Amino acid sequence: MKTCPSCGEEIIGRIDKKFCSSYCKSSYHYLKNRDKPENRFKKIDNQLKLNRRILKEYNKGGKVTVRKSILLQEGFDPKYFTHYWKNNKGDVYLFCYEHGFLSRSEHGIVKYVLVQHQPYMN
Fold it and tell me: Nearest 10 degrees: CA dihedral of 63, 66, 68, 72?
């Protein structure tokens, strides 16, 4: 009697069958592969894409100021960015592809100034 490596149930069917169901097969391989090093790159890429989507969603006008807490609630993580740009004043804008943000504090409330990449930023 063969047992399923995922749930321990008896396997019924073909002699070469390894899992009792497609759910167990999927679950087993997901758990086995989730901590592999190459998945780290996928997680980083997914966070960058999420950051870009959030910045794009909140910046419809080209330049806008939004509370940091609002973006964080949406899943934004400021530690993940693709590049930066420093303006003449010394402010450093962090970018997720073509959408950037700059941290500002106004009256004790941290806000982000959201911008879109412009040709003069090259």
Answer: -90
Query: Within a domain: residue 10?
Result: no
Distance CA 37, CA 40 (A): 5
Q: CB of 22 within 8 A of CB of 40?
A: no
What is the spatial distance between Cα 86 and Cα 100, in angstroms, rounded to a whole number?
A: 11
Domain that holds residue 45: 37-121
Kindly report, residue by residue over 27-76, the tens digit of the pLDDT. 999 888 877 777 788 889 999 999 999 999 999 988 999 999 999 999 99
Residue type, 43: K
Q: What is the pLDDT of residue 67?
A: 96
